[in-house]
């Protein structure tokens, strides 16, 4: 009689890779464990839109063969899921929209192909806000995602399913996309680590476009170290995305491998923007972030107050630029080449109008209308051009700030997870969730959210670290040193312990 | 900025989205709130500031104008709502 393989739902990628190599568990067994946990949690969390058990087992068997030959890389055989905005060849890719409910992607997104080539095993596609437009994962055509720490609460968004899947221990790694905070804010609200890399480091090819100058693919995992491992696989030049950067390959784990010392952050200057610690910050969030800053100082970092005077306009700038780009990008959904087409219509124009009325949800329609307005004749200069000018002023604030500090720290979101439905009918209140995360998208700079505490009600709180362009490795290192000294990232929600 | 019913109807027409009366009323109130947030930008002095269209000031590269993906017509048209003879079908536009 053979014993059941040990459960690995709380393991990191490094621990999984070691167990796979030591033959303590096979990739097929890992995939089966993930599929079982996903199935058991689906009614409670709704984290997945599509699960591909057959495909996963085929890939897992292939990974086991690679492992048996001794040719495995660090991600070989690891089960993974992608946000359903990333194209997966042969697998349904819906953007959580009725418009693409039956759309089967004809090719892989670049980051999907990179992770496939690295040997990961794709188990499914995660739920999200429709077309990645939202901060709560409530606008999905497939129903809201729930927070593993409290079923009454949202997991944040738009990559809420990917965040919830890691938080609940369904998977050790998932992907997301971040246009205004859609990786970092759900990471904060579910107590996991989530990285938005520097714009251009990961290709957007096959990422169904929302706002092209802001959209950034990135990883979710329990730890910053695992995010670095995933970024190593995801990053790379791709000439099919004209904004993908052609830079020398970088090992994002290199600095993390240096042995831990008593003061691993000696010499690191951490900037604290006065604007991020102002009124409106929830008391529990403020005290958890303060405690985290104390920990960073204990690890040798120094802190310095900085000013980002234009950052208070970031939300307004974002809600001009992102809808403008969205209204252009989403014009492709016309019922002709793919996606939903209305059943009843009078003529071609009527077919477009009814198809889009039926295919898009309310928030997507609102953003298309906002974008249409700010790009329309007579308003372009007053809104779109103005927003692009203020975008530059915000970027200048950050360039100046990074003359005085190496990393900027603060809360990821102004509050912990809120109740499902609490902000669903108030778009402006929903938009203000992203008040601290949007600037990094406007500037293209990297940022990470890592767990740094809990409210008295047991809801996670996130610390955001922002860096200058291409300082992804430095951010990951600061986060890693913090996680070596703390265990917030090791906590598991009560309903998902075993 | 306050949206009149005609403004919303015009926007919906430009965006090719049918809005029934209830949806138009709901969206009108929300657009007013969203533009109250956005209109704060008007008070900022941006004289002489170069608009920032891209996250980094780089020149976008051009790649060679060469076929890379090959013939994907059948693959792509398998997704289409209506095709015939390799063509996408739309309602009649010429009488």
Brief characterization of the structure:
With 498 residues, chain A is α/β, with parallel strands linked by helices. Helix content of chain A is 37%, strand content 12%. Chain A is built from 15 helices and 11 strands.
Q: Biggest sheet of chain B: strands side by side, in what order?
A: 1-2
Total strand segments of chain A: 11
Could you give a short account of the major beta sheet of chain B? 2 strands, antiparallel
Q: Tell me, briefly, the overall form of chain B.
A: flat
Mean of all residue-level pLDDT scores of chain B: 92
Low-confidence runs of chain A (pLDDT<50, min 5 residues)?
none
Largest interface, counted with CB-CB under 8 A? A-B, 72 and 52 residues
Q: How much of the polypeptide of chain B forms β-strand, as a percent range?
A: under 5%
Q: What structural class is derived from the secondary structure elements of chain A?
A: alpha/beta
Percent of residues in helices of chain A: 25-40%
Count the beta strands of chain B: 2
- How many H/I helical runs of chain B? 3
* Amount of helix of chain B: 25-40%
Mean pLDDT of chain A equals 96
> What does the main sheet of chain A amount to?
8 strands, mixed
Helix/strand structural class of chain B: mainly alpha
Q: What do these coordinates show?
A:
- In chain A, 37% of the residues lie in helices and 12% in strands.
- Chain A has 15 helices and eleven strands.
- In chain A, the strands form two sheets. Chain A has an eight-stranded mixed beta sheet. Chain A has a three-stranded mixed beta sheet with strand order 1-3-2.
- Chain B is mostly helical and 95 residues long.
- In chain B, 35% of the residues lie in helices and 4% in strands.
- Chain B contains three helices and two strands, in the order αααββ.
- Chain B has a two-stranded antiparallel ribbon with strand order 1-2.
- In chain B, a hairpin with a 2-residue loop joins strand 1 (83-84) and strand 2 (87-88).
- The longest helix of chain B is centred in the first third of the chain and has 18 residues, at 21-38.
- Chain B is flat.
- Chain B starts with a helix and ends in a 7-residue tail after the last strand.
- The model of chain B has no long low-confidence stretch (mean pLDDT 92).
- At the A-B interface, helix 9, helix 10, helix 11, helix 12 and helix 13 of A face helix 1 and helix 2 of B.
């Amino acid at each position: 009689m053979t014993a059941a393989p040990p459960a690995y739902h709380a393991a990191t990628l490094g621990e999984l890779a070691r167990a796979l190599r030591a033959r303590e568990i096979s990739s097929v067994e890992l995939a089966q464990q993930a599929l079982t946990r996903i199935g058991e949690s689906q009614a409670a969390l709704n984290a997945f839109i599509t699960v591909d058990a057959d495909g996963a087992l085929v890939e897992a068997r292939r990974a086991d063969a690679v492992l048996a030959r001794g040719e495995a890389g660090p991600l070989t055989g690891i089960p993974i899921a992608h946000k359903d905005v990333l194209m997966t060849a042969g697998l349904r890719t819906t953007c959580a929209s009725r418009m693409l409910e039956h759309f089967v992607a004809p090719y892989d997104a670049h980051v999907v192909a990179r992770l496939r080539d690295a040997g990961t095993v794709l188990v499914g596609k995660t739920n999200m806000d429709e077309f990645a437009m939202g901060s709560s994962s409530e606008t999905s055509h497939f129903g809201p995602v729930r927070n593993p720490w409290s079923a009454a609460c949202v997991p944040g968004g738009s990559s809420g399913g990917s965040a919830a899947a890691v938080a609940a221990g369904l998977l050790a790694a998932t992907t997301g996309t971040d246009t205004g905070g859609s990786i970092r804010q759900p990471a904060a609200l579910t107590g996991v680590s989530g990285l938005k890399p520097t714009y251009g480091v990961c290709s957007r090819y096959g990422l169904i476009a929302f706002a092209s100058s802001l959209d950034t693919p990135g990883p979710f995992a329990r730890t910053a170290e695992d995010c670095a491992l995933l970024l190593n696989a995801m990053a790379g030049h791709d000439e099919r995305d004209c904004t993908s950067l052609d830079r020398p390959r970088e090992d994002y784990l290199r600095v993390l491998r240096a042995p831990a010392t008593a003061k691993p952050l000696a010499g690191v200057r951490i900037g604290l923007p006065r604007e991020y610690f102002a009124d409106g910050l929830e008391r529990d969030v403020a005290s958890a972030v303060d405690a985290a800053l104390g920990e960073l100082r204990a690890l040798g970092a120094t802190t310095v107050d900085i000013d980002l005077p234009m950052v208070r306009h970031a939300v307004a700038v974002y809600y001009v630029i992102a809808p403008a780009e969205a209204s252009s990008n989403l014009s492709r959904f016309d019922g002709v080449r793919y996606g939903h087409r209305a059943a009843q219509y009078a003529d071609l124009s009527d077919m477009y109008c009814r198809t889009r009325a039926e295919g898009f949800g309310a928030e997507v329609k609102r953003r298309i209308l906002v974008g249409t307005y700010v790009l329309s004749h007579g308003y372009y200069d007053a809104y779109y051009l103005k927003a692009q000018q203020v975008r530059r002023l915000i970027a200048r604030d950050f360039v100046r700030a990074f003359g005085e500090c190496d990393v900027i720290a603060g809360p990821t979101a102004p509050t912990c997870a809120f109740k499902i439905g609490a902000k669903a009918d108030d778009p402006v209140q929903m938009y203000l969730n992203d008040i601290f995360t949007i600037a990094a998208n406007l500037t293209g700079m990297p940022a990470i959210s890592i767990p740094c505490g809990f409210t008295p009600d047991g809801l996670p709180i996130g610390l955001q670290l922002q860096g200058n362009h291409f300082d992804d490795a430095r951010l990951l290192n600061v986060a890693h040193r913090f996680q070596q000294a703390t265990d917030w990232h090791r906590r598991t929600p009560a309903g998902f312990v075993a | 900025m306050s949206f009149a019913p005609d403004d919303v109807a015009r926007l919906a027409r430009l965006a090719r989205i049918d809005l029934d009366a209830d949806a138009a009323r709901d969206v009108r109130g929300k657009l007013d709130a969203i533009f109250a947030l956005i209109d704060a930008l008007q008070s900022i002095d941006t004289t002489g500031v170069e608009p920032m269209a891209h996250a980094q000031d780089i020149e976008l590269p051009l790649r060679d104008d060469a076929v890379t993906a090959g013939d994907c017509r059948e693959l792509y048209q398998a997704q289409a709502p209506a095709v015939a003879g390799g063509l996408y079908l739309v309602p009649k536009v010429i009488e």
